[in-house]
Design a protein that fits this description.
By secondary structure, the chain is of the alpha+beta class. The protein has helices at residues 2-28, 44-47, 60-69, 73-82; strands at 55-58, 84-85, 101-107, 110-119, 122-130. The chain contains 4 helices and 5 strands, in the order H-H-E-H-H-E-E-E-E. Strands 1-5-4-3-2 form a 5-stranded mixed β-sheet.
């Protein structure tokens, strides 16, 4: 009984050391994936979308869709700045400069979704969609 009383503090110290080691190890590990609801807005730095790029390019398809739907460059910029990223419609598992973001907002009573491809400090608008109304367009 006497030996057990003398060993108890040593056993407690060893157990606490192991627990501390486990806690430190778990704290330093980042999660491999993060589930983000489709309506959540995340800061640009954490998801890679620069909402204020120095250059915005427009594909021919985007220009045609904008013309059909009467959407201006100013409205596209407003969607980009203020819109919500729809992660269900985005393709973010690609290499840099291959990612596609679906950004949505209501501008002048129009429900607009733009698909954009960021690359460094440039961004290309691939297409724009009115999610509530069908428009007659003959775009390639």
């Amino acid at each position: 009984m006497m030996k057990l009383n003398k060993l108890a503090p040593l056993v407690i110290i060893i157990v606490l050391s192991i627990v501390l080691l486990i806690v430190r190890t778990c704290k330093n590990q980042a999660p491999s994936t993060v589930n983000v609801p489709s309506t959540t807005t995340i800061t640009n730095e954490t998801r890679g979308l620069n909402r204020n790029p120095s250059i915005i390019n427009y594909s021919k398809h985007a220009r045609c869709r904008m013309q059909c739907r009467k959407i201006t460059e100013a409205e596209i910029k407003k969607v980009l700045r203020e819109g919500t990223i729809n992660y269900k419609k985005s393709s973010l598992q690609q290499a840099p400069c291959k990612k596609r973001y679906a950004v949505e907002s209501i501008v002048n009573k129009q429900h607009i979704r733009i698909i954009v491809a960021p690359c460094e400090d440039e961004l290309t608008v691939i297409t724009c969609i009115d999610t509530k109304e069908e428009w007659a367009c003959d775009c390639p």
